[in-house]
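Please decode residue identities from the backbone states below.
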């Protein structure tokens, strides 16, 4: 019997983790591997173009709501969140669990607080899942010591991108030393047993502790929004109906400034590949393109979100504008080589455990 038909409350799981750690990948894995459970998703993008929402929407149809631009932790109050939860929790939606995918710069504590403060009788806080990028973990911690605090709050920590590290045992040990009582599970491409998430409901004691800490006592970091991770970051959204020139884009990407930590979106290479759009992801120095057939009826355009600290948004926008293909109707033969260097055959090719 589903949770809804038995009249139980729907758990709301908060899925958090730094920029590019693999939250959307994990959410998509859950959507495809949830067995009979029906998942509702609330997706929060930091940039004005909702790339994450696009990446999960296909799988979910009307079970996704997007909270749009800005960090959920500051952009909406709990009553606004309630409106979205209400929509997903209505019995006719038949949803068993709701996952809130936070932006990569959101403060998980604020999100947990919002869910706990929800007055919706049909839902119950279902725990905090933190996704960690094993390959970037040391650098991210060095730049953002707050990450340790986030991990200490988690009920489940997924140490993702294990395929990219050679010292998995050390990273796992380090994460274990930073959590409180959370389960720590290694993963590649977010492939975790969904039972971890739907059963990761925190115990009563922990909810009590969180509600006391989060609802009645504010520490400095919570009161001061300038201490939030996203305070140091800017985002730039770029959309263009002009096809992108692959050589120019690769030149731009290969010389991107160090502060530009995250790029995501879809690229239209026009005559260079009329069948596919190219999902693009940069996380730190990691760069990948993923060709995928244009969805039927999709508007052919390049849409990118760039997120970084100390970036010159106007200069980056001008550089992206200059990547436009000047109307050349034909592709030259070698033009895509630079892009194809960053295409991997399949995820499995890099993940022997798959
Ligand atoms: N090698 C490898 N790449 C991964 C893994 N998981 C995710 N990726 C890649 O990492 C990039 C970012 O993944 P996302 O799932 O979009 O990350 P995210 O946390 O949702 O990103 P933001 O919403 O921007 O914070 C994509 O290129 C993914 O394909 C993994 O386990 N191994």
């Amino acid at each position: 019997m589903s949770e809804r038909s038995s009249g139980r409350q729907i758990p709301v799981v908060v899925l958090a983790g730094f920029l590019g750690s693999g939250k959307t990948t994990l959410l998509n894995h859950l959507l495809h591997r949830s067995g009979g459970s029906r998942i509702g998703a609330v997706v929060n993008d930091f940039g004005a173009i909702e790339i994450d929402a696009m990446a999960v929407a296909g799988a979910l149809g009307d079970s996704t709501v997007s909270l749009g631009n800005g960090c959920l932790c500051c952009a909406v109050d709990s009553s606004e969140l309630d409106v979205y939860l209400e929509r997903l929790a209505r019995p006719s939606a038949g949803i068993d669990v709701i996952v809130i995918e936070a932006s990569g710069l959101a403060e998980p504590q604020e999100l947990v607080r919002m869910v706990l403060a929800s007055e919706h009788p049909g839902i119950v806080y279902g725990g905090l899942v933190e996704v960690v990028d094993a390959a970037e973990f040391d650098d991210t911690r060095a730049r953002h010591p707050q990450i340790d605090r986030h991990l200490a709050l988690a009920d489940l920590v997924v140490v993702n991108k294990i395929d990219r590290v050679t010292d998995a045992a050390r990273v796992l040990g380090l994460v274990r030393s930073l959590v409180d009582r959370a389960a720590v599970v290694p993963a590649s491409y977010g492939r975790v047993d969904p039972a971890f998430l739907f059963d990761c409901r925190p115990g009563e004691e922990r909810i009590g502790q969180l509600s006391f800490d989060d609802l009645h006592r504010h520490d400095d970091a919570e009161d001061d929004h300038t201490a939030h991770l996203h305070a140091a970051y800017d985002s730039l959204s770029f959309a263009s109906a002009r096809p992108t020139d692959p050589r120019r884009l690769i030149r731009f990407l290969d010389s991107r400034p160090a502060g530009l930590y995250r790029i995501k979106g879809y690229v239209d290479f026009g005559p260079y590949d009329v069948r596919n759009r190219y999902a693009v992801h940069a996380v730190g120095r990691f760069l990948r393109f993923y060709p995928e057939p244009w969805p039927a009826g999709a508007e052919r355009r390049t849409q990118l979100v760039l997120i970084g600290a100390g970036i010159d948004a106007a200069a980056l926008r001008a550089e992206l504008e200059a990547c436009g293909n000047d109307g050349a109707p034909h592709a030259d033969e070698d033009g895509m080589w630079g892009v194809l260097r960053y295409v991997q055959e399949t995820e499995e090719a890099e993940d022997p455990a798959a």
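Observation: Residues 232-350 form a domain with the Hypothetical Protein Yjia; Chain: A;domain 2 fold (CATH 3.30.1220.10).
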